[in-house]
Write a structure and sequence with these properties.
Largest sheet: 7 strands, antiparallel
Structural class: mainly beta
Number of strands: 13
Strand order of the largest sheet: 1-2-7-8-13-10-11
Shape: globular
Number of helices: 0
């Protein structure tokens, strides 16, 4: 997958897809209603950022495309693709431990900081789609 051309869309399975790392200029879509919440995405080659009700959810550097983004109380799961290696940050529960799975393999346990941010780097080839799952320990 190269990009989510709509920038932000609801999938039939109840998940969200967002981001277009092929854009050369920053583009945004806001006031997107999904399951009672308002989402906003800003995306282009250098960064992709998702907000929910004005609060930080996801950010990647450089930009990425995310498919089937789903969050529960104990887990975040999605597919990520980009033009190459990417680092993403998620907003999770502060000072908590999570196990990160990339392409089905454990990348180890990581702890969030005081603000609940967890940053993960993923090695990607251009256009490669990799499943990511972050599970609360």
């Amino acid at each position: 997958m190269a990009a989510v051309k709509e920038l932000l869309r609801a999938e039939n399975d109840g998940t969200l897809s967002f981001g277009d790392y092929t854009l050369t200029a920053k583009t945004k879509k806001d006031n997107f209603e999904f399951e009672g919440d308002i989402y906003k995405v800003k995306t282009f080659a250098e960064i992709t950022k998702l907000e929910k009700n004005g609060m930080f959810v996801y950010e990647s550097v450089p930009g990425s495309a995310v498919e089937n983004f789903e969050t529960t109380e104990s887990e975040v799961a999605f597919m990520v693709s980009a033009g190459g290696d990417v680092q993403f940050t998620l907003e999770l529960e502060p000072e908590s431990e999570y196990e990160v799975f990339i392409d089905g393999a454990s990348a180890g346990k990581m702890s969030t900081n005081l603000s609940g941010k967890l940053s993960v780097s993923v090695e990607l080839s251009a256009g490669q789609n990799v499943p990511v799952k972050v599970v609360k320990c």
